[in-house]
Amino acid sequence: MPFCPTKLRRLRELFGYSHAAVAYSLSIAQSTYCRLETGKSKPDPDQLEAVARFYGLSVGEFLEHDSNQLVELVVSRPIFVKLRKAGGGVTLSDFHEAVL
């Protein structure tokens, strides 16, 4: 399955992060991230790797699943379930500390 910008939006919204926060975490400009998320630009291999890793996914997982499947995959990960049960809410930083 080719790159689909909808996946970026769905995953970002899952954690309640802003464009600026994700762009900062990926070490890219906010405008670059916005172009990726709107489909005006496609990620280079390094950006694709960084995005996948940011959400605790492999590039293969990111590319082969549609946006709904990706959300289900992320929220079904044991660490996500554990964090959600422990505090009611899961921040992306909590998730990253546990996954990365």
UniProtKB/TrEMBL annotation:
State any single GO MF term.
DNA binding
Highest taxon listed in the record's lineage = Bacteria
In terms of CDD domains, this protein maps to:
HTH_XRE (cd00093)
Domain HTH cro/C1-type residue range list: 8-62
| Official protein name in the record | HTH cro/C1-type domain-containing protein
User: Organism classification, top ranks?
Assistant: Bacteria, Pseudomonadati, Bacteroidota, Cytophagia, Cytophagales
